[in-house]
Amino acid sequence: MNHDIFSVLQEKMPQFSKSQRLIARYIMESYDKAAFMTAHALAQKVGVSESTVVRFAVELGYDGYPSMQKAVQKMVVNRLTSVQRIEAANDRIGNQDVLSMVIQGDMEKLRQTAETVDRSQFRAAVDAILDAKRVYILGVRSAAPLANFLGYYLNYMFRNVHILTASGTSEMFEQIVGVNSEDAVIALSFPRYSSTVVQAVQYCRTTGATVIGVTDTELSPLGRSSDYVLAAKSNMVSLVDSLVAPLSVINALIVAIAAKKERELAETFNNLEHIWEKYHIYEKQVDIP
């Protein structure tokens, strides 16, 4: 089911039984808590049986409660305020070891991303970047460090890379006004999605530019506005977005492009090594006796 579960609940509310209405109302009114509750916990909270909660999920068209829960999580993650995110995370963490929980969560996101990234879209994105006259990289707010990281390495490979991290819509448009069909635009955005980036890529599409979206799903606002989507899992951890999997996808993008430009890069870095050595850019390695 790809449609908004909240819209479905509102539409079906008159048809629900008394118990089902209790479940539906709680999900709609306390979605930040319901999204992370087990079927048993939700049943206890609204005063119905666990089997009633499971049947409710099935009657909505899901194959079980976990599928409905994932649908709620996907829809609410963009609606949660920072305070709600902290509260939801604290409910999930409880007495667990935070460090282990976060690391294990990031490892799971990496595994899921490795299994689901569309390889054909990845290869097409690499080719589009290589063929582009200019490369624009758009990433604001928490995605800005990703944009800067990607831009740092692409600047070694291309002569016309533009890194745009301004969060103001007018400032962003002033910098992309010259985008055209010869350009590639790499845009990054994760929940809560930046309206500035989404509006910017929608404009870029109208100019004929090729848009590569690095986001959490093809169904995200950025995913729906991109020619190619590199989907990387980025579930929230408290008020912090987990950007481990997106960074890994960006690393893969850099490595794939570098492999295609191996000869040019060898010359570039040979020249740079001489410059770095002459001007003492890096500290000398000291041998440990």
General description of the model:
With 289 residues, this protein is α/β, with parallel strands linked by helices. It has helices at residues 5-12, 18-29, 31-34, 39-46, 50-59, 65-76, 82-93, 98-116, 119-131, 144-157, 169-176, 195-206, 244-260, 262-278, and strands spanning 135-139, 161-164, 184-188, 210-215, 228-231, 236-237, 240-241. The strands form 2 sheets. The chain has a 5-stranded parallel beta sheet, sandwiched between helices. Strand 6 and strand 7 (240-241) form a beta hairpin. Helix 8 (98-116) crosses helix 13, helix 9 packs across helix 13 and helix 11 (169-176) packs parallel to helix 12. It is elongated and about 75 Å long.
**What ranges have pLDDT less than 50 throughout 5 or more consecutive residues?**
none
Overall 3D form: elongated
Summarize the helix and strand pattern as letters. Answer: HHHHHHHHHEHEHEHEEEEHH
Strand content: 5-15%
Give the rounded overall mean pLDDT: 87
How far do the termini sit from each other?
63 Å
Structural class, from helix and strand content?
Answer: alpha/beta
Identify the strand order in the major beta sheet: 2-1-3-4-5
By DSSP (H or I, 4+ residues per run), the number of helices equals: 14
Give helix % range: 55-70%
Radius of gyration: 23 Å
